[in-house]
Amino acid sequence: MTVCLTGLGVYAPDRVVTGADVAAESGVPEDVLTEKMGVREKRVCPPDDDHATDMCVEAARDALADADVDPGDLDLVLYHGSEYKDYVVWSAAANVADRVGAENAFATESYTLCAGAPIALRQVRAQIQTGDVDAALLVAASREEDLVDYGDADASFMFNFGSGASAFVLERDAGDRTRAVVHESAAVTDGSFSEDVVMPAGGSKNPPNEQTVRDGLHTLTVTSVDMKERMGEVSGPNFLSVADDALERSGFARDDLDFAAITHMKRSFHEWLTGELGLGEDGHYYLDEYGHVQSVDQALALREALEAGDVTDGDVVLFLAAGTGYTWSATALEWRA
């Protein structure tokens, strides 16, 4: 049995915020934002439009058209995007399924934050292999830029947050409609980072009220003063570990890797990581015109690579991601023209 990626869709809002704009609001020098942090520009949503499900629906329609799949033939709609969505305690997956016409699919959600794309592919691939699902739509969206306080210096590594959505169609044995064969995955979690990045109010520990709003506790912040140092010790090795494991389980090695779609990160770390993986200039795409769009990053990088002709028939592609929690994940694919 072959698990095939048959459709790809992405969506980005029209509104552009530049590194200069973020510099003016945050006080961080523009050259630091653009060169070090990789925020040349990013897309953001207007307050009253482009909610998570709106963006997912746009990306989903493109992916379904790309796959030439009728939404009525879907067995599953999986949302693996941000928990910050249209409403709290609410199924974005069910809403998207209804709006795209997937009346025969069940809808569910999976959260691994920014590490979500490789793990969502891993989960649905397993469901297809067991025979539980024949055709699935995977959607993700993020507008966590809304949760960033540019006056909070402790949260500066989140100043790259942008908005957008992605969609994949996965099917069993799709024949000549196959765009990529989905291979094996790997993931690792270090839970010691689980409370280092939080929104202090809004959950059961500190429910929202007038005082929490007045105190500005509804934005993301870093609660640990030594997170950067602790992360620096483990992030590189964990990225390489999941990359190598996913490739090896798929029958590949670093020398076989042609393109890696990687979570947006500071430029120097991106360059170090792609160097360690042995990737040339056309073997990766740096998302400095999108920023970091949670689990949408991999689809954005892949779409840019396809449009540039940097991913072609037979190429080995690696989705490589990391998200607060902290989880590192990877899934290998083999491209088909």
Automatic annotation (TrEMBL):
UniProt keyword Transferase present: yes
One of the record's GO molecular function terms: 3-oxoacyl-[acyl-carrier-protein] synthase activity
Positions of the Beta-ketoacyl-[acyl-carrier-protein] synthase III N-terminal domain: 113-187
Family matches, as Pfam families: ACP_syn_III, ACP_syn_III_C
Keyword Membrane tagged: no
InterPro entries linked: ACP_syn_III_C (IPR013747), ACP_syn_III_N (IPR013751), Thiolase-like (IPR016039)
Keyword list, A-Z: Acyltransferase, Isoprene biosynthesis, Transferase
Gene Ontology biological process: fatty acid biosynthetic process; isoprenoid biosynthetic process; secondary metabolite biosynthetic process
Residue stretches making up the Beta-ketoacyl-[acyl-carrier-protein] synthase III C-terminal domain: 247-335
NCBIfam families reported in the protein's UniProt record: PRK06840.1 (NF005308)
Name of the protein in its database record: 3-oxoacyl-ACP synthase
Species, as recorded: Halobacterium bonnevillei
Lineage, uppermost ranks: Archaea, Methanobacteriati, Methanobacteriota, Stenosarchaea group, Halobacteria
